[in-house]
Design brief:
The complex is a heterodimer of chains A (152) and B (271). In chain A, 36% of the residues lie in helices and 29% in strands. Chain A is of the alpha+beta class and 152 residues long. Chain A has a four-stranded antiparallel beta sheet. The chains are: A alpha+beta (152), B alpha/beta (271).
Chain lengths: 152, 271
């Protein structure tokens, strides 16, 4: 457990977080690994965990008949999954490991419960998640703009 | 103002709508230029357009190299030219990339789409004088894996052990094993000292705006960020005013500008 706490503390996402919060959060964490080609989660499934990548790469994908598109790849020190934050807590995309990937998996129900129980922790988590979400929103808008296309 | 005559020595198709022409001056005149400069190219009977030089400035004997995307009447006519065809050339014009000022600093080259073409001469210069620079990061974004410009050259550069090269695409299917995401997401991955970094940015204007924002977030100041602007350049010598941006002429004072000078002009809703 001590090893896991250290891993959580050292992940950039939790950098500078108060010790008491880190202890609370570590109680919801576990180490996981995904082999290359293994799905981390599937679209529509309950978003019962989110992942802090420690190594490897994960593709966020959406599947259509006869075609699977990758909309984003996520790498070391980044986060996989935001749907655990908002009801109905279901994944909006597939996530698939592109190579051997190691991560900290956070139990979403456990963490949501602790955030409800301690709003200071909840606010701290939101402050850390929002920049990631805003950055991804901006990136998505830039993708939608199709800036490299030929526009008349 | 009178174009010199050049002949197409070589035509290479880079992408479905992009070709690179290597030109030879008919009068055998010199082909010297600095990275970031452009020429006005004429297809006789069709018209004249500004095209950045995409060749190696250290190899003027290798011909005058331009990479052209077929987006209009003149660029389309240029893209259809073949070996031996005549082209009118005026230039080189403009202020280019600060490859000399960058010496001693880390360098971030942030580019997307066809923006790699005007930056390629600067990359050649950086690599030819590698020891004079600190860390070098080349960050390139494309629309999709099939639209990566100069792909074989990027692959060669990636094999160099003393530069960082990251490529990403906006969208991909599962055949692509590389990074997917906008080019700005590459900035945090690159290793450079923001207080001692000079950044060169070229691509579609919206991409450059987001790129500048990402570089600022990383700690690079506006005085160290340079961008290449694209405007309707006609005379290329600062007379006609077609490319005027407030007090500056993009053709003569640019096309490469330092962002602290450029940002107030591009941010203004009306000039």
């Amino acid at each position: 457990m001590e090893g896991l706490e250290r891993i959580v503390r050292e992940h950039p996402f939790f950098s500078g977080m108060k010790e008491e919060f880190l202890e609370l959060i570590s109680g919801c964490a576990k180490n996981v690994r995904f082999e290359a080609g293994q799905y981390v989660f599937h679209e529509g499934q309950p978003a019962d965990q989110f992942y802090l990548l420690r190594s490897g790469r994960v593709a966020i994908q959406i599947s259509a008949p006869e075609r699977t598109l990758t909309v984003q790849t996520v790498g070391e020190d980044e986060i996989v999954g935001a749907s655990w934050l908002v009801p109905p807590y279901r994944w909006g995309f597939d996530a698939k490991a592109l190579e051997l990937s190691r991560a900290i998996a956070m139990d979403a129900a456990c963490l949501r419960g602790k955030c409800e129980g301690d709003h200071d922790l909840g606010y701290e988590m939101m402050k850390r998640f929002m920049p990631v979400l805003i950055q991804r929103l901006h990136a998505t808008r830039l993708q939608i703009l199709d800036v490299y296309g030929v526009h008349s | 103002m009178v174009p010199r005559i050049a002949r197409v020595r070589r035509r290479q198709r880079d992408l479905k709508d992009v070709v690179t022409l290597t030109l030879e001056m008919e009068d055998g005149g010199d082909l010297e230029f600095t990275p970031g400069q452009f020429n006005m190219l004429t297809v006789f009977g069709v018209g004249e357009v500004p095209i950045s030089i995409s060749g190696d400035p250290a190899k003027p004997g290798g011909g005058l190299v331009h990479t052209i995307r077929d987006v209009g009447a003149v660029s389309g006519a240029l893209a259809r030219l073949g070996p031996g065809d005549a082209v009118g050339v005026r230039g080189p014009f403009g202020v280019g990339w600060p490859v000399t000022e960058a010496k001693g600093s880390d360098v971030v080259v942030l580019t997307g789409g066809l923006g790699l073409a005007p930056l390629r001469p600067a990359i050649y210069s950086l690599l030819a004088n590698r020891r004079q620079y600190g860390k070098i990061a080349l960050l390139y974004g494309a629309r999709g894996p099939g639209e990566i410009l100069f792909r074989s050259e990027l692959e060669q550069w990636r094999r160099l052990l003393d530069i960082q090269l990251y490529v990403t695409v906006d969208h991909a299917d599962t055949d692509w094993f590389g990074s997917v995401g906008v080019v700005t997401t590459l900035v945090p991955r690159a290793d450079f000292d923001p207080e001692h970094t000079l950044a060169m940015v070229c691509g579609p204007e919206i991409m450059m705006r987001f790129g500048v924002s990402a570089l600022r977030d990383a700690g690079v100041n506006d005085q160290s960020i340079y961008l290449s602007m694209e405007r309707s350049m006609k005379c290329a010598i600062g007379l006609c005013g077609h490319c005027q941006l407030g007090p500056v002429f993009v053709c003569k004072d640019g096309p490469v500008f330092r962002n602290d000078r450029l940002a107030p002009l591009t941010a203004a809703k009306e000039l």
